[in-house]
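TODO from last week: model Ribose ABC transport system, permease protein RbsC.
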Amino acid sequence: MFKSLQLTSIRPRDSLMQLALPAVIVSVFLGFGLVEPAMLSSGNIANVLKQGALFFFLAAAQLVVLITRGFDLSVGACVSLVSVAASMVMTAVTATAGPVTGVVAGVATGLLIGAAIGAINGTLVAYGRINPFVATLATMSIFGGLSTTISGGFPIFDLPRTFTFAFNEAWWLFLPAPVTIAVLVGLALHVVLSSTAPGRVLYLLGDSPAAAHAAGLKVRLHLCLAYVASGLLAALAGLLMTAQIGSGEPNLGTNLVLGSIAAAVVGGASLRGGRGTVLAPALGSLLVIGLSVGMNLLQINGQLQPVVVGAILILGAAFDMLRSRAR
């Protein structure tokens, strides 16, 4: 059963879509570049890669739960809470134990919070049998409010220089740190989804929940773990975004949810579950960030950018419907 599922998780039509998307991305860059040459400069390309890497974690978080026929509206709130809580721990520990210990404590705090938020979402969805929309909408409100409450609504400054340098300015393996981390996480996620039993169970759960239950698999446990993975990926995004701006922001993830879903769906993940690879968040993130950066360079009204993101989500859903009808 797993073998046949693995072979059908990527179909020829899906492969053609994934080949077409890089062409669209290149066209977007060339189109903006013809109007504004700075779009194609080496500095801007590096900036797009960094921004795309940060957004990749959020789109990857959506991919994991989309595979199971769910989605996670709380990723933005997770980013905000991780940013604030990790920054508060980091500054407090740094003052008493030094920057290295402070960074380790802050990063560990952020990851634990992400895993805890994911576990709460997973418990509500898998064991409480609450609709993912309702469950994650509720936790979005709870954890978004908590991030504002513990910070008093103000940013957390004075982060250790070690943190901002290591996770934003430094280069790891000849690439900017966020890009290297995204590549390593993406490779690990690809292996888990394509070559391990838990990953195949997620595809089976999304493709045919009845078959997953009939096979006697630990469906609820795997579904819960999918949301834990989503929380961890969102926490990574929160930590790296915090390193980029140099402060803990209680509203850092407020406007990221729709874009993360749009990136995953337009990249090839299915809203109907059971489909999608790591290429989906990778390509989708480059498209969304490329459009955003290009519009910024052309000084297009920033209020139009959510319109573009919404259009991308509609196009992704339309392509998803066409793929579904073709099967």
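Done. Strands lie at 171-172, 175-176.
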